[in-house]
Fold:
Amino acid sequence: MWKVIIADDEKLICRLIETLIDWETLDMEIVGKAENGLEALRMVEELHPHLLITDIRMPGCDGLELIRQARELSPDIEIVIISGYAHFEYAKTAIAYGVGSYILKPVNQAELNKTLQKIVLRLEERGKRERTEEDRESGQSAPQRRREELLRDLLEGKREFTEEELAESYQFHICGCQLQTFFLKLDLDGEELSNPARTIIRQKAEEMFQATVLPSCTEGALFLRNFAGYGLLSYPPGEQDRVRHSLRELLKQLEANKSLFGKVEFTIGLGRPIQEVRELAGSMNTARLAAEERLIEGRGRMLEDVPPDSSLPKQAILNRYTKLVDHGIDIIDGDTLRLARESLRAGVLAVSRVRGREIFELVLDAGKIFSLRAGSSDEAAQAFQQRCGQCGRTELLFRELEQLHTQVLRELKERQENETTRPIRMAKQFVQENYGRNITLEDVCGAVGFSSTYFSALFKKETGEGFSKYLTQVRIDRAKELLRETGLSVAEVCEAVGYSDRKHFTQTFHKMTGVNPAEFRRLYG
Structure:
């Protein structure tokens, strides 16, 4: 079935959209409903939906920003906007982000149903093209390659599989066996890893997997992507303990060979054993969530349980954090941002039995909120998320948040300094181009768009001297050049640099250089 996520901060709208459509007839399933943009973005990342239905105006991360980031996570995702805003700019931006449809509230059932039918046709056509490509390649691909593709397709949520499809398309045969998923997590704790080191880890992990785990299974596959490995095993009923032992042996060998890899820590999260192919995605998600508990339980272990949520008041903690962050951004103050981080940390530590996944999600959301509020670059936000994914300890997550705050605060200061000095640069350029005319402070202020009182104070603060003194210095410096390098008379030089009174020019020149213009020419001409 095609997976759908609905995002709207009005619960009534979410329920209305849910009830208006016969989703089963369209072969669609609502897999998530979000009340804000950050929650929706996380669902897109974790659930890999085929369709996102969203409002434009939402707290935390508005619909247009959600769409942009969702596109980066899943370029093929279909998107429908349902909004009360008919403004052309919204629609134009939405179209630029690849939105398929823009429906205005109140929602018309027939219009929405017609839109969804068109989307289903596009999804089916795309699926046919992908399957045709897979079938063409299947005769040339080794079994292990096909099994890796199965795991990749499973992670990307392309579709649900049947036992027959696994056998025919991916050469993964179940034949009444039990299925087991696992998640191999690599943590770098902020360290850089060279491409050769990554290649060594991948090769060694695959070799160890084949030597320690595959012999205990009827079928098995390991797919390594970035700093995580996704595994799928099948084995006869009753062999679960033997398989678990083989996975522990794999982890033991990886830990024993860490000196080959560099500063890498390993953890295995174990998904629940399943009997049905349709449960694969849920089991893989369980394995990933189990591995996130390493933030609490420690690394170098095989984690099998996904404990229930704690009493962490996530929204209240984020609200306090956001308030401090907004203030810190407004005044560009590192101490206020430090208080925001301390508030976040204190909120986490105050909760007994807080879960690793809750800490991870909280810090990620804090980073996203800060990046959005500060208007930081997409590169900084993406790099932060990637680095957090490589952290296996809670304190390292908060260190990454601190680094994000520091980096973006530096960008804000530079931006502010540029904005502050811009009128000064404009004024200096105006003087350089017009010093030969009888220009005044008011002329310059008109060119840069500031009042004379504010500009005078700003100019002196930024340059350490008054504007009048700067203008005089420019004129006298230019006069010295003309006296040295041209045959212009003193009267002509006086006029060329903006003085109408030769006596005033001579007095000013003498005051600035210690000699009058004629003497300067004799000495330096």
Observations:
- The first helix runs from residue 11 to 20.
- The two ends are 88 Å apart (CA to CA).
